[in-house]
Amino acid sequence: MKIARSAAELPHEGEVGLVPTMGAFHDGHLALFAATRAENETVVASLFVNPAQFGESEDLARYPRDESRDAELAEQAGVDVLFVPEAEEIYPPGFETWVEVERLGAMLEGVYRPGHFRGVATVCLKLFNLVRPRRAYFGQKDAQQAAVVRRMVRDLAVPVEIRVVPTVRDEDGLALSSRNAYLSPGERERALALPRALAAGDRSLLDGLEVDYFEEADFEPRVLAAAVRVGSTRLIDNVVLEGDPS
């Protein structure tokens, strides 16, 4: 596996599949890599902790980072190129151009994390322009993110196909997330109310947790989505109500 730190080092031959990530790889990422490997000649995974999608009070400074571990896991999963750009590669001096997906970016997560999806859409478009993939892969757990990126690609005629891979869960039902590492054992037990409430369609199962939202959203496919806070950790999850998440 090659580690590329600048766009000049990226391959553009054949069909390229891209998995945009912020690192801290887990089995959810490995499922994305596997799907990409199955459908493309070249697999590129980007590893960039995007400051533009973190709010002022959010966890940018403590977000888990372990490039050597991530590189080892990516190579074992069949990734051909790990793209690890510096911030200046993505946001060069004087950067002032942003992508805003208005309606989809303002609901649900957008209410509680203003500016978040502006950062997501902008960095994804930048990565699409640098990597030039035929397909890009996202997890169903971040259903709104996938919907925002899909809308951006359609509206701006970006020549990339957006593929969504089903959510990967631990045996206890908790959706895999890099932020799960923040949970104490007791908090993790409390967090299991989130997937249980979504599976049952019953908000009352979240009693005792701080709930930001528990709502149906007309994405592609339609989902029941929720966000809760367990201690200082904020978790999101969703279940598909209709349609095929792939």
Q: What class, by secondary structure content?
A: alpha/beta
- Major sheet attributes: 6 strands, parallel
- Count all strands and give the number: 9
Helix content estimate? 25-40%
Strand content: 15-25%
**Overall 3D geometry?**
globular
What's the SSE pattern?
EEHEHEHHHHEHEHHEEE
Mean pLDDT: 95
Spatial gap, N to C terminus: 27 Å
Number of helices: 9
For the biggest β-sheet, the strand order reads 1-4-3-2-5-6
Radius of gyration: 17 Å
Low-confidence runs = none
Quick structural gist:
The chain has nine helices and nine strands. It has helices spanning 27-39, 67-76, 87-90, 102-106, 109-112, 116-131, 143-155, 185-191, 193-200, and strands at residues 2-4, 16-21, 42-47, 81-83, 135-139, 161-165, 210-217, 223-230, 233-240.
Write the layout of secondary structure elements.
Blueprint: E1 2-4, E2 16-21, H1 27-39, E3 42-47, H2 67-76, E4 81-83, H3 87-90, H4 102-106, H5 109-112, H6 116-131, E5 135-139, H7 143-155, E6 161-165, H8 185-191, H9 193-200, E7 210-217, E8 223-230, E9 233-240
Parallel strand pairs: 1-4, 2-3, 2-5, 3-4, 5-6
Antiparallel strand pairs: 7-8, 8-9
Helix pairs in contact: 6-7
Tell me what you see in this structure:
This protein is an alpha/beta fold. Helices cover 33% and strands 21% of the residues. The protein contains nine helices and nine strands. The chain has helices at 27-39, 67-76, 87-90, 102-106, 109-112, 116-131, 143-155, 185-191, 193-200, and strands spanning 2-4, 16-21, 42-47, 81-83, 135-139, 161-165, 210-217, 223-230, 233-240. The strands form two sheets. A six-stranded parallel β-sheet has the order 1-4-3-2-5-6, with helices on both faces. A three-stranded antiparallel β-sheet has the order 7-8-9, with helices on one face. A hairpin with a 5-residue loop joins strand 7 and strand 8. Helix 6 (116-131) packs across helix 7 (143-155). The longest helix has 16 residues, at 116-131. The chain is globular. The chain starts with a strand and ends in a 6-residue tail after the last strand. 37% of the residues are buried.
